[in-house]
Design a protein that fits this description.
The chain is α+β, with helices and mostly antiparallel strands. It contains 11 helices and 7 strands. The strands form 2 sheets. Strands 1-5-7-6 form a 4-stranded antiparallel β-sheet, sandwiched between helices. Strands 2-3-4 form a 3-stranded antiparallel β-sheet, covered by helices on one side. Strand 2 and strand 3 form a beta hairpin. Helix 1 packs antiparallel against helix 5 and helix 5 runs antiparallel to helix 6. It is elongated. The chain starts with a helix and ends in a 20-residue tail after the last helix. The relative contact order is 0.12. The mean pLDDT is 82.
Length: 301
């Protein structure tokens, strides 16, 4: 009977960390206004990979305690498969770009793929710390070990989510509605010239009657470097077109003197609040973020 109880005890030492890691993957699997990943198949794919990564983290400690170093080596090799997950995710998004009205762009796709790879590591680390805590706590009372392990797992998830949380456009810029003006065949957003490719009366009337525009003001001058990046501007355009739909036309233009970005489009759904909020919540792409601490601050005064 004692052997059976001990066996059940060690089973819980593995199952609980796996459960915590899998739940952490579900918590980070957020479907927001971007609607990616979609459900149900993408949910299943990411939850299964989260379960596998949790299993790797949960089994690592028992394998080390049993001095089964071959198993530990195998577990570390298994983490290489997460890079394959990133590659597949990237290829899938690139294929989807071919059927979208507006492209996500390579920079945005790369950021999404890296995010999903990183979230698998979050599951692994949550399961690992939960398992480690349950083995370290000097108590053979099962429920005490479980509570301690779960609490440490929650703390690990909170720390990792806080550390990996990225910024959005709203953190570095103010976004306001702007006025659209057409002079002959020239399109202006406030005082910024956007395009002169409005050759027909139908296109000019469509923009006059149905267009919506915004002006993005960088909060500091060096933020205009990020906002002017083609990948970042493409991500903004994609998000607003995905949220409101695109009837026709979308343009962006930069004011080279002030760093302002003008954006205009003709949406299917006209919603000013959703338009501004979507721009603000567009994530800043990691591939173009830079630190300006080492640069001469007088440069931007």
């Amino acid at each position: 009977m004692e052997k059976e109880a001990l066996s059940q005890y060690y089973i819980f030492l593995i199952l609980i960390p796996i459960l915590c890691g899998t739940i952490s993957r579900y918590v980070t699997l957020i479907v927001d206004y971007r609607q990616y990943p979609s459900y149900p198949n993408a949910y299943l794919i990411h939850l299964v990979t989260g379960f596998i990564s949790s299993g790797i983290g949960a089994i690592a400690i028992p394998a080390l305690l049993e001095k089964n170093f071959e198993a530990v080596t195998f577990l570390f090799l298994a983490t290489e498969q997460f890079r394959e997950v990133r590659r597949i995710e990237k290829e899938s998004l690139q294929n989807l770009d071919d059927v979208e009205h507006v492209f996500r762009g390579e920079a945005y796709i790369d950021g999404i793929a890296k995010t999903f790879e990183a979230r698998n590591y979050i599951s692994l680390l949550v399961a690992f710390t939960t398992s480690l805590t349950m083995h370290i706590v000097p108590n053979k009372i099962l429920w005490i070990n479980i509570i301690c392990g779960v609490l440490v797992g929650i703390l690990t998830l909170y720390i990792l989510k806080t550390f990996s949380k990225g910024k959005s456009v709203g953190d570095i810029a103010d976004v306001k509605l702007a006025k659209v003006t057409i002079k002959n065949s020239e399109l202006y957003v406030d005082d910024i010239f956007v395009t002169n490719h409005l050759g027909t009366d139908i296109s000019r009337k469509l923009i006059e009657d149905s267009s919506i525009a915004a002006m993005i003001y960088p909060k500091e001058k060096h933020f205009s470097i990020t906002l002017n990046h083609n990948g970042q501007r493409q991500a903004i355009i994609f998000e607003v077109c995905r949220a409101l739909g695109l009837k026709r036309y979308h343009y962006t233009k930069r004011d080279y003197d002030t760093g302002r970005i003008a954006l205009v489009m003709v949406p299917i759904i006209y919603d000013e609040g959703a338009f501004i909020e979507t721009i603000k919540k567009t994530p800043l792409l990691e591939s173009i973020r830079k630190s300006y601490k080492v640069m001469n601050t007088n440069l931007y005064k």
